[in-house]
Design brief:
By secondary structure, the protein is of the alpha/beta class. Among the domains are: 173 residues, Response regulator (Rossmann fold, 3-Layer(aba) Sandwich), CATH 3.40.50.2300; 30 residues, no CATH class. The chain contains seven helices and seven strands. The strands form two sheets. The protein has a four-stranded parallel β-sheet with strand order 5-4-6-7, with helices on both faces. A hairpin with a 5-residue loop joins strand 1 and strand 2. Helix 4 packs parallel to helix 7 and helix 5 runs parallel beside helix 7. About 4% of the residues have low confidence.
Length: 297
């Protein structure tokens, strides 16, 4: 009986390996056409680049934050953007000894109610120069007045082209300032966002995604973001337009979470470290601009 069991085992082992081999061959046969198509597409179609389309809003009307100066030796804040950003400059050609940092956010980053000279980015630069005297610390303050997270996405895309060594993100207090329109609330699970970002490196998927996005825009146009901030409080009767709206609140919070995922993902794909700062809030002796407590009491 023992001999029969051993013979049975000896016949079973090849059968198991045969099934595994057949399954592997099936996987190869299924994947091979996809690999061939991807290879042909990469050979024939130029790289379209990794452009992350925001599902909430279009950034087509925005302008670059930095432009080359007259000498061409440095980038400077575009004169068109100085209403919301303090003038900054950095070398057009980054040398090996330079450690370049970009700080992104709103007026807190800029140093309001004062200016960049007293902002936390300036103090950080001074401390780093003491700790690392051998390095040329290039600190670029990109704090925009009333700038919310959705306006930082195209800005970061631009900043990544300037070879940053570190990104500092401080945002979250300007999400409700502008009038926003949501045709639908999009709650995208985080794993799907990560999967989509990873698949954008597959050129076939990237091109298909762009094609589908262009078709969707024709049938269901995405609201376009204005070139600069338009806070409701700065408009005529702006205070009266503020009302408690739980649905809008949930939409904005969902978008804010989405925007943070996108900003972090952009930094990770570019292999640039990012520090996330939690904006401080001083609520003491700061009554709200408007209260509807009685209406909802």
């Amino acid at each position: 009986m023992k001999i029969i069991e051993k013979q049975g085992d000896s016949h079973a082992a090849p059968s198991v390996w045969r099934r595994i081999l057949i399954r592997l061959l099936v996987c190869v046969v299924v994947c091979l056409p996809l690999v061939l198509v991807e290879g042909v597409v990469r050979w024939c179609v130029p790289d379209p680049g990794l452009v992350w389309e925001d599902p909430f809003i279009s950034f087509g009307s925005l302008r670059p934050l930095f432009v080359l100066d007259a000498s061409g030796a440095a980038f400077e804040t575009s004169p068109e953007r100085t209403r919301y950003f303090c003038p900054q400059t950095f070398s057009a050609i980054k040398d090996a000894n330079t450690f370049r940092i970009f700080c992104l956010g709103g007026s807190t980053v800029q140093g309001r109610p004062y200016s960049v000279e007293t902002s936390f980015s300036t103090w950080l630069k001074l401390n780093l120069e003491v700790l690392c005297p051998e390095k040329n610390i290039e600190m670029v303050n990109c704090g925009g007045i009333s700038y919310a997270s959705y306006r930082l996405i195209p800005m970061m895309q631009e900043l990544l082209e300037y070879e940053p060594d570190l990104l500092i993100l401080c945002t979250g207090q300007n999400e409700f300032l502008e009038e926003r329109t949501y045709h639908r609330i999009k709650r995208i699970p985080r794993p799907l966002i990560g999967l989509h970002q990873a698949l954008l490196y597959v050129r076939t998927y990237n091109l298909a995604n762009r094609w589908l996005a262009s078709r969707q825009k024709r049938t269901e146009p995405t609201p376009s973001l204005s070139a600069e901030v338009q806070p409701r409080l700065d408009m005529k009767s702006g205070l009266e337009t503020y009302h408690r709206d739980p649905v809008l609140h949930d939409s904005i919070m969902a978008e804010f979470s989405y925007n943070l995922e996108v900003l972090i993902g952009k930094a990770q794909r570019a292999n640039v470290p990012m520090i996330l700062m939690n904006p401080v809030s001083n609520l003491k002796d700061c009554p709200p601009f408007k209260s509807e407590f009685r209406a909802f009491g």
